Amino acid sequence: MAGSTWRRSVLAAGVIGAAVMAAVDEIVFHQLLGWHHFYDRSTLSVGLLSDGLLHAAELLALVGGFFWFADLRRRGALLPRAAWGGFLLGAGAFQLFDGVVDHKVLRLHQIRYGVHLLPYDVVWNFSGAVLLLAGAAVVWRARRRPRPGGRP
Questions:
Q1: HEC sequence for the chain
Q2: Mean pLDDT over residues 46-57, rounded?
């Protein structure tokens, strides 16, 4: 049961972390800076449609993650340390997936156009890796250290 509680705390917060990072990407890089759209290999209209679909998916994940998180909290099954680690894992996983799969493998879009991409790619993927590693460290510590009351 404790392992299951730990896992659910990590996963619920991981969904929230991925959704928040998707929102940051979409709001900052797609809308405010206008550097790219989710799908840039077609017309501007298709790019805007793809941004809207990304935004809808991110909102659904955010709402679903918060309902899951609230349910765990209501039942006294939320492990806060594990949840913080899960949040960072989710944010880092989204960032790295976007940087590696969306940018380089599928080539759906690049971070920015008309510039030398290497510095942007390095910062993008390095920041994702830092979030992912920080999340893994927090989750590992949460799993190893029992919380007050004797439960891990």
A1: CHHHHHHHHHHHHHHHHHHHHHHHHHHHHHHHCCCCCCCCCCCHHHHHHHHHHHHHHHHHHHHHHHHHHHHHHHCCCCCHHHHHHHHHHHHHHHHHHHHHHHHHHCCCCCCCCCCCHHHHHHHHHHHHHHHHHHHHHHHHHHHHCCCCCCCC
A2: 95
Beta carbons of 138 and 81 less than 8 angstroms apart: yes
CA distance 26 to 4: 33
- Other C-beta atoms closer than 10 Å to the C-beta of 37 total 23
Give the other-Cβ count within 10 Å of 59's Cβ: 13
Report yes or no on whether pTM surpasses 0.85: yes
Residues 19, 26 contacting (CB under 8 angstroms): no
Query: Does pLDDT of 3 surpass 80?
Result: no
- CA geometry: angle 130, 121, 106, nearest 5 deg: 105
